[in-house]
Amino acid sequence: MDKPVIVKESTDSEGVDTDLMSRIIPILGAGNLKKLMGLKVLISGISGLGAEIAKNLILTGLGVVTIHDTEKVDWIDLSSHFYLTEADIGKNRAEASKAKLAELNPYVKVNLSTEPLTDDYLNQFQVVVCVDYTSEEKLLHVSEYCHAHDPAIVFIKADIRGLFCSVFSDFGPKHVIYDKTGEEPRQAIITSISNSNPAVITTHEEKPHGLGEGDYVEFCEVKGMVEINNPDRDSEEAGEKKEVSPLAAVKVLSTKGLYGLEVELDTTNFQPYSGGGLINQIKVEEHVSFKSYRESLEHPGEFMISDFAKFGRAEQLHFGFQALHKFQAKHSALPEPGNAEHAAEVVQIAKDLNANANQGTHKVEEIDENLISKLALTARGNLNPMAAFVGGIVAQEVIKVTGKFNPVTQWFYFDSLECLPEQPVSVPKLEGTRYDGQIAVFGTDFQKQLGNLQLFLVGAGALGCEFLKNFALMGISAGEEGLLSLTDMDNIEKSNLSRQFLFRDSDIGKMKSACASAAAKKMNPNLRIKASEVPVGEDTEDTWNDTFWSGQDLVVNALDNIKARLYVDSQCVRYLKPLLESGTLGTKANSQVIVPRMTESYGSSRDPPDTAIPMCTLKNFPHQIEHTIEWGRDKFAGYFTNAVEDANNWVSGSDFLDRIKQVESYAAKKERLQSCLQLLKLYNYGKADFQTCVEWARLQFEELFHNTIAQLLYNFPLDATTSTGAPFWSGPKRPPTPLKFDPNNATHLDFIIAAANLLAFNFHVPQVRDKDQVKEMVGKVHVPPFSPQQGVKIKSGETDTTEEGAEDDEQKVANLIAELGQLDKAKYPVGESGRCFEPAQFEKDDDSNYHISFITQASNLRAANYKIQPADFHKTKKIAGRIIPAIATTTAMITGLVGLELYKVVQGASVPIERYRNSFVNLALPSFVQSEPMPCTKNKSDPAKGLKYYPEGWTLWDNFVIDEGDITFQQLLDLFKAKHNLEVTSVSCGTTLVYNPYFPNHKNRLGTKISEFVRTSVPSYDLKDTDKHMYIVVLTEDEEGNDVEIPDPVILKFK
Q: Which SMART domains does this UniProt record tie to the protein (predicted)?
């Protein structure tokens, strides 16, 4: 068996515009972005699909993208090509596209070719992508040349035929993958290791180990069984390949529940395990051999499956697409839309291919005539959602040339036949309109339906830009009665430009909604769009009111936060509007279709909330880099924001001391007062200079990374035990080591530079960025020796009820307040901003402001205290900045799938739930899972459980409507009794209980109109004079006094 080869991913970002690429770096890594910057890619065939692939790759930052085409622009291209217009008809497709594609990223060189491809020309590229090729002969030649080239040129073929697509990948006979998933390596704390063959490992129950069969791991810090520790740990340089000790990569044979695993290692003769240790997942090289295109036609291997409801369909389509090629070779064109004779000929070709297949090659029992016929009948269709979907997949395949992520192996077939109406579509002769590619599949009447849609798009970020492009090309809201309402409250930032492709450098600082709508209008001048900057939420219901929501046909979310999604979802439920929901996270994406009275809503099921880091772990017992990064961010906020604002409040004479008195513990009061007083004294009435800032930074280093750690070890010595006699420093509690400052250590000095410059910013003092200058300054600082304090109380864990702090904290608080009183407020100058000091408001996207730099150095120094693997600048930025990794490929792909669901939603009630699809995709693996949406739950009474519903079987989509005019409380009670035989037990409106029969004074309200009472007495509900209805919550019970649940809310119509 070959020894596994470990490759550490390079983090070198030299030459990478990290501001522009800040959302992509967490996905690909800075080192892989540098690889891509040296890549030359040829995209041959600039149809709508070719343009999508080019756009996604240019945004991702490849070195050279060459677009090649010999075809002329036709009307049918305009249905999916976002950079072609009516004026381009008859021009070369690549020539007409180049200038606009080149605008997407100034770092990418976009070349053009319109001549037939030759072997010499192909020789310059590392990847060749052939798109919608009509000639099988040309495909075979190009693919054979690429496969035989040394080293192999990656060859990718992609075709879209209406609602069908085919993707083929050939990475050559010797492709190396060093990270199949792109996920962060797992780490777990060890609690036991057996002396056996194979060895059995048990991990701490703090969290599941998350490892699987076939993974590789290493061991470190194990006590007793020291032989198992990896001797080569930390010896490999990033980007360097190296064969290492067998203990550097041990294979996992099987898992034993969530906290156990069996590894390929004989520990029989090792010393017994006595405690401690970590198990770390290791990424190792995997060598994969790909077949050539020619060989794969006959021996395709296993097909990827995206929808298990269509099991066996890929095997059929493998013949169907070959049959289309042969039809094209014979007729020089694809089958005509709706032409039954052409379809029958394609079916027969497929049958012949299957019948004549050699023994041992690909073969099916029987050709599915209905499937292949539909492929032929819609083959000339050119649909933007399909181009967006496949364009995202193929661009991600190109990126995999770096060795990161797992390529398609090797065929991927996909169809969305369920988009077609139940009744056959009557397709007219195509007469030259920009929607011909869509009309070829769905007909003219459906195109008019799309044009007259009233659609609300919430968000104009990455998803929103892709949706706008898709909707413009699909002709949505481009009819006389259509209107696309768009809203987004954000401004454009530089980091947006790597995936929000409607924006340019000149748009930075402008509003997203206005710029995005203008760009979409350029793609389709007939698009009727209204842009807004008003957010959607409870506070803006005067803008997004009943009239607005009632007038919408469809809502599409393009949001990046749960709260806003839930609100839009609740409004769609209230107004019975279909909602298309989607989201991305790096290479992962999901989409959900929500149909009134049919499916569950977005809010019906939610992921569990992220687990917060326990305060005790954060303060004293970190064991993961995430803990130290969060600690570093807290220190940033405490030093450079909170303490500064406290000092400003004190200078301004506000209620600073009153706020301090409200703080619960004396230890916390002391900490805030010390920080504020220290800042005021350091400033020294405006006499502080940069040397002052350096001295403070050096003393903070000593306090944070030496003194605090030494005090912790004084309280809990290394040989301390718990009340049960177990070692205190075990499991998640890692024993720390105080650090000794070394000016020649880059992390130590960088901490001083960042901290001093941030304080200088607070003080309006000129900053010093020169390392040698700062190094000289820090050498002048006197650091007093440390002596541990007696009587300091530190919690030993989350269950410890000890009140932290020192015994004399109360007296120290009084002293600090007195010391503050001795300072002269009048000597602290207040600037034009009305403040003496300038707080540092955390900004993650400016790498020059020292915010992330401080957090990185502080986190890594604390990690050194606790022997935790450090994190580089980019990983720290991702975690501290709560950055959601994003890349154009994933965004484009998922919006394409949403577009396919839109086709179904527009067809209305005729589409059963079985034809809708929710999608879950991971382009890294790659994995495609489509499934039928969950139906909405029907509430059914169960006397045995004490559950009673009225009316029986109501769902979240049902409303209890009372259309009896402007009624009183008494009339409401009488109506429920007379019509539904229910007693009203309470009525609420907004956040106010407005009626309860058990409250004596509420009986006085019975003769009052509900609307009148709400207007005068319920400030939490804004009922306007123009409103035609209102919402209340009514609780009821039956004659026996049993609770009866009715739909919530109750709608009172009074006009």
A: UBA_e1_C
